[in-house]
Design a protein that fits this description.
The protein is of the alpha+beta class and 72 residues long. The protein has a single domain, classed as 2-Layer Sandwich (Heat Shock Protein 90). The chain contains one helix and three strands; from the N terminus they run E-H-E-E. It has a three-stranded antiparallel β-sheet with strand order 1-3-2. Strand 2 and strand 3 form a beta hairpin. The chain is globular, with a radius of gyration of 13 Å.
């Protein structure tokens, strides 16, 4: 998954996988599409249940999530 939003502060890295967490730069208000801060929390749970890993990389305004699984 990749987006081109505002990015996040590296100090918040431990917080972004918590349920309902939305950073102060999140798009809220009239233009919000009903975000609840659950996407990354659910993604992390699914990865752990399937013995996978989830990694994030924040490069300037690009946010990249990489999910990896082993094939048996």
């Amino acid at each position: 998954m990749k987006d081109d939003g505002l990015g996040f502060n590296h100090e918040n890295i431990k917080e972004i996988f918590k349920s309902f967490y939305q950073g102060k730069n999140s798009k809220q208000g009239k233009n919000s599409k009903g975000s609840f801060g659950l996407g990354l929390a659910i993604s992390e749970i699914l990865c752990k249940k399937h013995c996978g890993n989830i990694h994030i990389n924040n490069l300037n305004s690009e946010f990249l999530v990489t999910v990896s699984f082993s094939i048996e």
